[in-house]
Every structure is written in C-alpha cells, then in structure tokens.
Amino acid sequence: MTGLLERLGYHKHNAKLNNASLKHEEKMYKFFRRSGAYLNSYLLEKMSNQDRVSSKVMSHFIDDYLEGYAFRHHNFPVNQMFGVQSSLPNLMMTLHPLKHKTDVKNYSKRLRAFSVRIEQEIIGLKMRENQVIIPPRFTIDKVLEEMRAFIAVQPVDNPLYTTFVRRVNELKSIG
How many helices and strands in the chain, by DSSP H and E? Predict the structure, then answer.
C-alpha cells in the first residue's frame, strides 16, 4: 500500500534509495539466515493455526531467499524493459510523493543519491562481467540508446525536472 508510512507521518524513507551494494547483500543474507534459524526455533505445535500458517509462509519466504542467494547476480539489472536506468527516474516521476515540503526536500535528496546507487550497479555489472553474465548485444544497444536520449536534453527539459515542476505546480498548497 503506497503512502501508508506517510499517512502515519513518517517520511524519512523517501529521502533514500535502496542499497544495492555487495556489502548490503551480504548483510541481508546473514540477517535472513539468523531470522530463519530464530523462526525455526519455535515449536509449530504450540502455535495457533493462524500463527502456524504465518510461520510456514515466512519460513518458505526465507528459505526461498537463502536458496536463491547463490544466483542473485544471474540477472541483467540494466535492461531495456525495467532496468535501473529507467526504474530510478520512474520512481521519482511517478511514485515519489510530493504533497509536503518534506517531500520536495526528499526529492532532492533522492536525486543526489542517484550517483551512489548507479555506482553500486556499475560494481555489480563489473562483477557479472567477470563471471561472464553479460546481456545480449541488442539489450546493451537499447539501454545505451535509452540512456543517451535521457541525458541529451538540457537539464530544464529533462523529465526528472519537468515532471517535478508540473507536480509541484499542481498542488493547491504545500504543507
């Protein structure tokens, strides 16, 4: 449910982007391993039916994550359909809330975080290249074409800017 945290007055998360670093991946793997062991320490027979189902669902989710961890880089995070080069701008233009002054400030903070996020992706792409996990040539060509077109316009004509200005101007008042 988009906007749930904002309705509760929490906005800090809208100033950040997801961490795609290799270090964070490892941290999350260790977290899921510990969490799975902790969850499995509970005795299912002592739980209510609803808690038992919830525990089994969560256990399945954790097991699935842990089993897939070895293959986490067997993908193409930069691709012509939904790669990071389009998902980051899309996040800003369509999902980032712009209803309060804090949202406007967070928009700028998120934009400034793009460089770190893109650097994390580049590190991941280099690692994939070393493992010979390389997208097909047509994918690379399409992505390069998309990225070149995105940066070819003047900053005031860039969709990140024009969408921001339009959305802020549409507000009757900003709280």
Answer: 7, 0
